[in-house]
Amino acid sequence: MSQINMAYIEQFQACLCPPGNGVFTVNTAKERKAVLHQALFQETELTYVEQIWQQQLPKLADSGNAVILGIASDCGGGILRGANWGPLFLRTHLVEQYGYDQYFDLGDVRVIPHLLHDKYLNTATINNCKKALYGDTDNDYAVSPLTITEDIATSFYDQFPGKGLFGIGGDHSISYALTKPYLQAKKAQGKKVAIIHFDAHTDLLKERLGIDLCFGSWCTHILEDLPAPNHLIQLGIRSSGRPKSHWQDTFGVVQYWAQEINELGAHEIAQQILTQLDSDNVDELYVSFDIDALDQQFASATGTPEPDGMTPQQALTILEVLNARYPITGADMMEIAPFTDSTGKGIENTDTTLQHAGEISAFLLDAINKS
What we know:
By secondary structure, the chain is α/β, with parallel strands linked by helices. The protein is built from 12 helices and 9 strands. Belongs to the arginase family.
């Protein structure tokens, strides 16, 4: 067995919890959690689930490249909430519909649902939350979802530079905490990377209602860690108060709006992106996928469903073409809100959203595993 620094195991055990348990509840969704735990651990009693999960953590060193991390937080959202249930529901769908055994599941970040990032908290609040999460204040662990995620991702890439995280959210602010350590780790490795960002929205605000780290601003705050701003390539944009030229000229990013993709076709868009990646001498790709990049007929169980979007096949075509040339070494799937019903179809819209999110997630997991 390969060696793993026990300090990292201790950090993972303290700051994470078994898959599906990121939303802290007593009875709510108990049956849904039990289904996932039975599939993953052949056990449903939470005490035993915790023990089995902790015993498996050292095996991370000998696992494949793709490692799953759930972040069940929607505190960084702001329209319709409910994406905190995404990690539980998407995992269950993946277990039921796709091969899951080849991927190591690191678990879920322990989430206090009222918190976002530690920098917004005073010392007294941090100490109170440390007592709630860890039992005492005699530790250096963070207490907010974004800060914990960033710390976990930093430790992960430090210990396992050849592996890649697949993050399941949660609202899109989480991608800040996932991509920042990824970009810094790749820079230290001498790798040039690009982020392929699927979304109906640009997420390029500097702040939203005074908060600088949220679902509408996370992209702005990772630009400094990219080799160049145009290494953020956004696809599916269509809900914006400003034209495409504003975002490209102001931030230097590259965008392909949903209308362009529908008019030119996914394959042509992918070829244009390949031309840029080749010119920029990019080595690897990170894919951040907000499910609302898809048209609302395919993905309505989300906080901000939008019409006139991409089809699942368009997204997969672009990903397949890019991955044929470039390794995808990290990814995330965000903004699945299973209990959110914007169509009046109830469970039907949840199943449809999970079906398409699952297909794309399975592709991304496989791509990371083969990278």
